[in-house]
Each structure stands twice: as structure tokens, then as C-alpha cells.
Write a structure and sequence with these properties.
Elements (H helix, E strand, L loop, with lengths): L2 E6 L3 E7 L5 E8 L2 H10 L6 E4 L4 H10 L4 E4 L1 H8 L6 H13 L11 H33 L8 H4 L2 H8 L5 H32 L3 H6 L7 H11 L8 H7 L4 E4 L6 E5 L5 H17 L5 H11 L4 H22 L8 H20 L1
Parallel strand pairs: 1-4, 4-5
Antiparallel strand pairs: 1-2, 2-3, 6-7
């Protein structure tokens, strides 16, 4: 049996094939395009397992080979470096190491979402990027106004609305200052319609999703958090236990031991940062902002009552939110301690946005 490791760069595929004893039987450099992929099918057989480092460049190769009946596994590059005990990168050597990890059955394989989930992720991440750009543009304008001593009679939300912008354009400014202000306003006015369009597209994506329908029943989980959780996680079946999901979502403690009993030191660091952020926002909302009592708020208050800092208490609240998300997702039930009226309002908002998107 042979094992193939491929290290991918923008323009090239470095291929290394080893046999069952670990001896290299073939090395090659191929173009990173469809012609190079076709050449791979001539050099390898469907019985040869193929290993790749997970990343944007890996998916075209993965999809091309899988469609032709090959077994392709994507691996975590950071865990590979840990196994190799090396923090340097050499393309030819990396291809050999990947192949050898397959051979000794130590390949750190990662979950591969289906194409629909990957496409949904791209949409949700694009929306987040545009929102961040719009927020930064508003912050830059606000900073500029303060620097010039301009004090608008509006709150921050109204300032960037139609009335606020009209007020800004009525101010007596010299040509240079007006030009700078118009540059900031033009950027905001260009980005806000894109945010609205992407909001409608995300709503259309999740409007009929049964898992999202249950997730929004959790206090603190809104439209966009539910969409992030739904498509960043993809499938809860990929996790063997609730503990594995909590670690993935950054809601599990980090254990440390050195010459004595193990102790816990804050949350795990290796996790999905997007899921961690979504769970963190939901936990903080449920613990601090949501009216009424709920288990997340109870845990937060308990930790604060013990004198724990706010960040530590929110870490405990995040763990409880992970448990709730896992239960709602896997049991097929709505959150038992959520408000039905609030959940229904979230669902109506999703439907309104989806209808607006389909009508435009």
C-alpha cells in the first residue's frame, strides 16, 4: 500500500509518495490547477490515501480527487507541527511528513463540512467582515468629529441615520474639512446597503432551518449568532461528547499539571474563535442584559458573589451556554427556560428579512 502527502502552495503541488516501510517511492512537483490535478490521477490510484493540510487551497484538490473516487483526508497543520516537533516549513519535507503520518496512522484529521455548509460559512463570514468595516468607518468619523470639536445633538445611532447625516452636511466647514467628512460619510453610505443585503441573504439561508428555529429559543442567541453557530459547527454528530463540543466552542476549562494534581486555568485556547465569540456574546446577553432569571444568569451571579472577576464569571456562563446549545441541538427541543414570545419575535424578524430579500 502507498501513502501520498501533498503540500500545496499558490502555484504548485509538492507530492511525496511512501510505501508501507516509509521509503519514498515517488516525488514530484505539479501545477496547482486542473491540469496538475489530472496528472495526480495518473500518478496515484484510488487505493492510495491522500493527505493534505487543511486550508483554502486544499479544497479544490480535495473536491477534484474525491469526485473521482480517491480517499482524501485533511489534517490540522498546527497539530502536525506538534507531532513533527518542528516550527519551520519546507514544502518537500512537509509532503513527506504528511505521507508518513498517514502511514503510521497519526494523521490529525479534521472535520470536512459538506459544500452547502462551506458556502453558507462564506456568506456569514462575508457579512461579518462588511459589518466590521462599516463599524470602523463610523468610529473613524466619530473620532474625526471629536477632533474637530463638532458636537452633534444626536446619539451615535441617530448620527449615522438620515437626519444625522443631513445635520453634518449643514455644518459650516472649510473645503478641506468638508472633503474629509464627505469621504467618511461616503464609505458608510456605500457599506450600509451591503450590510442590509447580506442580512437578507443570511435570513433567507436560515428561515426554514429547524436547528436555527430551536437555537433562537435560547435567551441571548439572536439571528446572526444562530447563523454562525449553525454553519460553523455544521453537525453536532462530529463531537463524541458534550465536553468535546465545549472545548471546540471555547467553553471548557484548560487543565494544567506539573508535578502535582491537575488544576484548571481558564478556558481552552485551541478552539473555533468564531464559535467562541458567538457563544460568548450569547452568554453575556443572557447573564447581564436579558430580563428575568435564567440558569446562565444564576451561574454568573454565583461566581460574582464569590468575588470572581467579571471575565471569570462570564467564562462559567459561557460553559452553561455551551451546554444549553448542545442540548437544544441534539434533543430536538426548544430551550425550556426561554421566553416563547421573545423567540417568536426573533423568528418573525428572520422571516421579514427573508421576504425582503426575496422581493428585491
Amino acid at each position: 500500500m502507498r501513502y501520498a502527502g501533498i503540500d500545496i502552495s499558490n502555484n504548485r503541488l509538492d507530492l511525496c509518495v511512501v510505501d508501507e516501510t516509509g521509503d519514498v517511492v515517488h516525488r514530484d512537483e505539479l501545477a496547482n490547477n486542473e491540469a496538475g490535478y489530472e496528472e495526480l490521477t495518473e500518478l496515484l490510484t484510488p487505493e492510495d490515501p491522500i493527505g493534505l493540510e487543511v486550508g483554502t487551497l486544499a479544497y479544490p484538490v480535495h473536491d477534484f480527487m474525491v469526485e473521482r473516487g480517491y480517499t482524501v483526508r485533511l489534517g490540522d497543520s498546527q497539530r502536525m507541527k506538534t507531532i513533527w516537533q518542528c516550527d519551520q516549513k519546507f514544502d518537500g519535507k512537509d509532503a513527506f511528513e504528511i505521507a508518513d503520518l498517514l502511514r503510521i496512522d497519526k494523521f490529525p484529521e479534521v472535520h470536512i463540512p459538506d459544500p452547502d455548509v462551506l458556502e453558507a460559512r462564506e456568506l456569514i463570514r462575508a457579512r461579518k467582515d462588511v459589518v466590521e468595516q462599516c463599524t470602523q468607518a463610523k468610529q473613524r468619523l466619530g473620532s474625526y468629529l471629536r477632533r474637530e470639536g463638532i458636537d452633534p445633538p444626536f446619539g451615535s445611532d441617530a448620527l449615522y441615520g438620515e437626519k444625522g447625516r443631513a445635520w453634518l452636511r449643514e455644518q459650516d466647514l472649510d473645503a478641506k474639512k468638508r472633503s474629509l467628512m464627505e469621504a467618511h460619510l461616503a464609505q458608510i453610505e456605500a457599506l450600509e446597503p451591503r450590510v442590509e443585503e447580506l442580512d437578507e441573504m443570511v435570513a433567507g439561508l436560515i428561515v426554514d432551518d429547524a436547528i436555527v428555529d430551536r437555537l433562537v429559543s435560547i435567551p441571548g442567541v439572536g439571528l446572526h449568532n444562530a447563523a454562525v453557530l449553525r454553519f460553523e459547527v455544521g453537525s453536532m454528530e462530529r463531537f463524541d461528547t458534550i465536553g468535546h463540543f465545549r472545548a471546540y466552542a471555547g467553553g471548557a476549562p484548560r487543565n494544567r499539571q506539573s508535578g502535582g494534581p491537575a488544576r484548571q486555568e481558564g478556558p481552552v485556547r485551541r478552539c473555533n474563535k468564531r464559535v467562541k465569540a458567538a457563544v460568548g456574546i450569547a452568554a453575556e446577553s443572557a447573564a447581564v442584559k436579558t430580563k428575568g432569571e435564567n440558569p446562565v444568569k444564576a451561574i454568573y451571579r454565583k461566581q460574582r458573589g464569590k468575588g470572581k472577576p467579571r471575565s471569570n464569571a462570564l467564562g462559567h456562563a459561557r460553559g452553561k451556554m455551551c451546554n444549553t446549545i448542545y442540548a437544544v441541538w441534539t434533543k430536538g427541543e426548544e430551550c425550556r427556560w426561554g421566553s416563547e414570545a421573545t423567540a417568536e419575535n426573533k423568528r418573525l424578524k428572520i422571516k421579514r428579512l427573508a421576504r425582503r430579500g426575496s422581493a428585491s
